[in-house]
Amino acid sequence: MMLGYRGMGLSMGSMIVGWDNKGPGLYYVDDNATRLSGRMFSTGCGSSYAYGVIDSGYREDMTVEEAYELGRRGITHATHRDAYSGGVVNLYHMQEDGWIKVCKEDVSELIHRYRKGMF
């Protein structure tokens, strides 16, 4: 899908997630066909802002709810600080039997919720 746009001056990165017989997989794929496997990624023009939140809050022993909240905070921070990012947090959780939509929340509401602790 992305290969058809190679050499056209576009810049993009995607996260691809799934589950196979080895367990969960998370991959970053860009417009140069670079594919990286890892435990966490952030893509897009606001990703450096998201990484700041994720790097400071990530722990190996996080609960699922704590991970949701960290993702929500990272996306909110990136969207707030980057003028080209969107205004909604869409958060999904990939599980062995499929995915679930965790939330779709307006960033302006989340900013007010996080203002004291985050900004």
Q: Within the largest sheet, what's the order of strands?
A: 1-2-3
Distance between the termini: 38 Å
Number of strands: 5
Helices, by number, come to 3
Q: Mean of the pLDDT scores?
A: 89
**Biggest sheet architecture:** 3 strands, antiparallel
Q: Return the domain count.
A: 2
Enzyme class: hydrolase
Organism: Oncorhynchus mykiss (Rainbow trout)
GO molecular function: threonine-type endopeptidase activity
Protein name: Proteasome subunit beta type-8
Annotate the secondary structure layout.
Layout (H helix, E strand, L loop, with lengths): L12 E8 L2 E8 L4 E3 L9 H11 L6 H18 L6 E8 L2 E9 H12 L1
Antiparallel strand pairs: 1-2, 2-3, 4-5
Helix pairs in contact: 1-2, 2-3
Structure, explained:
GO terms for molecular function: threonine-type endopeptidase activity. Its EC number is 3.4.25.1. It catalyses: Cleavage of peptide bonds with very broad specificity. This is Proteasome subunit beta type-8. It holds the Pfam family Proteasome. With 119 residues, this protein is an alpha+beta fold. The chain folds into two domains: 1-41, no CATH class; 47-119, no CATH class. 34% of the residues lie in helices and 30% in strands. The protein is built from three helices and five strands. It has helices at residues 47-57, 64-81, 107-118, and strands at 13-20, 23-30, 35-37, 88-95, 98-106. The strands form two sheets. A three-stranded antiparallel β-sheet has the order 1-2-3, with no helix packed on it. A two-stranded antiparallel ribbon has the order 4-5. The longest helix has 18 residues, at 64-81. The radius of gyration is 15 Å and the shape is globular. The protein starts with 12 loop residues before the first strand and ends with a helix.
